[in-house]
Amino acid sequence: HWVLADIVTEVTGRPYADVIAERVMEPSGCSRWLGISTDDQDDVADVAGVGSEPSAEELAAIGLEELPGRIGTEVLAAFNRPWLRAAGVPGGGGIARATEMARWYQAVLHNPDCFLHPEVRHDAMAVRQDQPDWTGTPANRSHAFVLAGNDGKAGMRGHGHGAPAEAFGHGGAAGQIAWADPASGISFAYLTNGLDRNDLASARRRVALSTRALACVRQ
After folding, report:
1. Residue 135 pLDDT > 90
2. What SS3 class is residue 181?
3. CA dist., res. 186 & res. 51, Å (int)
4. Which of 43, 108, 209, 212 has its Cα between 20 and 30 A from that of 179?
5. pLDDT tens across 136-189, in order?
6. At 148, is the secondary structure helix, strand, or coil?
7. What structural domains and CATH numbers belong to the chain?
8. What pLDDT score was predicted for residue 153?
9. Eight-class DSSP state of 143
10. Chain-centre distance for alpha carbon 154
């Protein structure tokens, strides 16, 4: 994201967050998510760590002494600083409501007025990186999303159990998740400012919520 932000800025001569807002967010009917002015942050909720770290017993049950590569809630709490929210950090710090996030996924799903060039949208749905993560699950990452896949491991990627292979989405720190399902036409987003210190619990929660969302269109 950092490299892409630099490229956008160099090519357009404008702050990358402004370009994203104009070309990606506004055409999809969504508000600005990056680089929120300090004068426009009154309704932004501060993030805070909740819960406890995984216990030694929980980690031992999956054969680990500690979780690798995690981002602590203390680091994420830096985004409570107004100036950092206004900076529009390319690698994180997007600010949105869950309803808007789900609406944006609807726009990607249906592509109204072709706000995404067909070739760009097609590329965003093609797996470009399938190296396994620390659990041994292939990443199934495109240039934009994580695809559910047809290997029975959609749940390990944050999608609900039984998600169709073509479902696409992306997780976020401390259990955030959003996705769209082309088969049913629904999109789903779960965002919280309560950052669970237990990454195992937050992972289980987002899969459970995604599974329940899928069940709503199967009844």
Report:
1. no
2. strand
3. 31
4. 43
5. 899 999 999 999 999 999 998 989 999 999 999 999 888 899 999 999 999 999
6. coil
7. 47-82+96-216 (3.40.710.10)
8. 92
9. S
10. 15
Strands 168-171 and 177-181: antiparallel
Residue 219 confidence (pLDDT)? 60
CA atoms of 107 and 179, how far apart (whole Å): 12
In single-letter form, the type of residue at position 77 comes to A
Residue 101, Cβ density class (10 Å: 0-12 exposed, 13-18 middle, ≥19 buried): buried
Question: Rounded distance, CA 88 to CA 18, Å?
Answer: 10
For 93-111, the pLDDT digits (tens) are: 899 999 999 999 999 999 9
Reference 209, options 181, 184, 190; nearest CA is 190
Tally the residues of the chain. Answer: 219
What predicted TM-score, i.e. pTM, was given to this entire model? 0.91
Backbone angles phi, psi at 161, to 5 degrees: -65, 130
How confident is the prediction for the chain on average, in pLDDT? Answer: 92
How far is Cα 138 from Cα 25, in angstroms, rounded to an integer?
Answer: 30
Token code pair at residue 180: 């769209």
Q: What is the pLDDT of residue 124?
A: 93
CA dihedral 90, 70, 203, 162 (to 10 degrees): 70
- Among 174, 160, 164, which residue's Cα sits nearest to residue 203? 174
Task: Choose among 199, 142, 211: nearest CA to 175.
Answer: 199
Q: What is the distance of C-alpha 8 from the center of its chain?
A: 21
Q: Which residue has the tokens 């980690």?
A: 59
